[in-house]
Amino acid sequence: MSEVVLDQLPVTRLKGVGTQLAMKLARLRIHSVQDLLFHLPIRYLDRTRITPIGALQPNSDVVIEGDIRGCDFAFGRRRSLICRVQDHTGIITLRFFHFSTAQRQNLARGGKLRCFGEVRAGSTGLEMYHPEYQFLDENPAKQPLQQHLTAVYPVAEGVNQQRLRTIIDQALALLSDRSLTEFLEQDNAAPSLGDAIKFLHQPPADAPLDLLASGEHPAQQRLAFEEMLAHQLSLLRLRQAIRQHRAPELKGDDTVLLEFLESLPFPLTNAQQRVSQEIKQDLEKPSPMLRLLQGDVGSGKTVVSAIAALQCVASGRQVALMAPTEILAEQHRNNFTRWLEPLGIQIAWLTGKVKGKARERQLAMIGTGDAQIAIGTHALFQDQVQFHGLGLIIIDEQHRFGVHQRLALRNKGQHGQIPHQLVMTATPIPRTLAMSAYADLDCSIIDELPPGRSPVSTVVISNQRRLEVVERVRNACAQGCQAYWVCTLIEESELLEAEAAEATADALHLLLPELPIGLIHGRLKPAEKAATMSAFKAGEIQLLVATTVIEVGVDVPNANLMVIENPERLGLAQLHQLRGRVGRGQAESYCVLLYSPPLSAAGSQRLAIMRQTNDGFQIAEKDLQLRGPGEVLGTRQTGDVMLRIADLQRDGHMLPKIRSTAEKMLAKSPDRVSAIIRRWLGETDHFSQV
Ligand code: ADP
Ligand code: MG
Hints:
The protein has 24 helices and 21 strands. The protein is globular. By secondary structure, it is an alpha/beta fold. Strand 2 (about 60-75) and strand 3 (about 80-85) form a beta hairpin. The strands form four sheets. A seven-stranded parallel β-sheet has the order 11-12-10-13-14-9-15.
């Protein structure tokens, strides 16, 4: 059997693996023998040597050997079986809360025992709970210790460590030079795939445990490289597939565009001009644009998206602009209406809350093409919505829409053509993340803020000094300034958050009776929200108590003070978004992070970063370091960036090389591409879901 290709060999071909076990293994995404080999340990135990009982330390994983000195029940809160084991250096207690009669009888008979397990401090001194054990007969040489470190695997219900180790041992026995296809060119410095796999399942007793624990051993790095390569290939292949479709060439005349630019109260920044140009060139091509537009909070992405929209409209095609939340969508609608309706452009509006007659009217405007631009939430992409020659989709992402959601939009084109796509991110994404999670998109970056912005000074203050902060608000408002007071909650409940904001508003009202105070949260009706926002914009409200709904979109230049309660509950990106609401005017701006002590170490580290920098890209990098990619992208559940071995933070430095390897491979050996993706992604391949 040594020459079989293991990726085709089902696990059921191994001894002791029937359909029952195979089903359980499938839960660990293990189907083939190859999958089993790629099911790598999360850590290791050293069972290569025996520790004298007298030298045991609590919280260590050890092997001990000794003679049974008694076995009895202990009646504490739970009945347990305890068994004393002694060697010439000391004595220790084994404790079992579950045991069979046979087990008890065997232990009671006495004899010499070898035990594996974790030592802890218990009621009788040092104890081992439920150790694995074996009886040693007269001749211990017949029962040698492990020669290599013992792997600890991720397990699932019904597949325990023992079981996995036995079948993985079998899989390793099948591993020969030819049985796992080597997809990478042999690099002299790196171990071969087979060697790396074998090493990681059974490292020699003297393997560097610290390197293995940090994932930096060459064997791990070899696999991490290949894993990231597989993800990269999956996204690049997806992009290739989409690029092969045709898209409408959006070459309209730019009279309206010039008119629009003329009407703006400001000139575009250089960065805005540059990225607008990049987008323009893409839109003129007959293959679909897939472009990510990045820029810090307040860098002016909306204008850029409006320019793209105008180019599309000018060539007789329709635009859809989708935002992740109602509030953000509304903000876009306000901007687009203000900017584009004077130019004779009709805008349709569709969210889940638009119902009945109003909904029919909006759907009709979209379907007939009377509306050249449709703005809304996910509701825009439900099946009933029929577009009229859709040429461009603009997606404003708060958290990342999954690759799959982006794909669903593709199908909204006509005549075999698919629309161009422009994806805007609400906050900057670290470069490594952008290179991996967004590898299917080209990237444009607005790296310049409009002139006249002053950096926001941020202070971190304990809630115990709340009254001083209230005084500060009083003084600022007395001088004609406006301020935000942001309430946060741990639970993601709109209702609770709204109640908390109401309570805070009441309390502030008592403390600051002279101030006109407004309240805004997600439970208010759109009309109420709009009324409050326009009163704040007009300066009729001086202090706006808000939930995090104002994180996105709100733009009031005269507001130059923001207090954020319990900022330690929020991620850095979200704090940065919130803070971006101030510092938009000429006056110096302040942000007060009003935390509830005690702060955890991580919490105070995060707040310190907010104090130190206003640069969204830097903050995003730190956020990635502190919280990991899933949290930063908001895709923890979707699994889009689920990596088994690689770690973007640790291994991101390999990405440029991975990218070029991926491009070469796609061009030269497409057959390998499928195999390598299957090996690492299996059914989670993006392309297979196209
Ligand atoms: P974001 O990139 O965060 O979406 P916006 O598009 O909301 O930023 O722009 C923030 C504010 O800056 C808006 O009030 C917008 O009108 C203004 N703005 C955009 N571009 C410029 C510019 N070139 N000069 C001055 N102000 C601008
Ligand atoms: Mg925006």
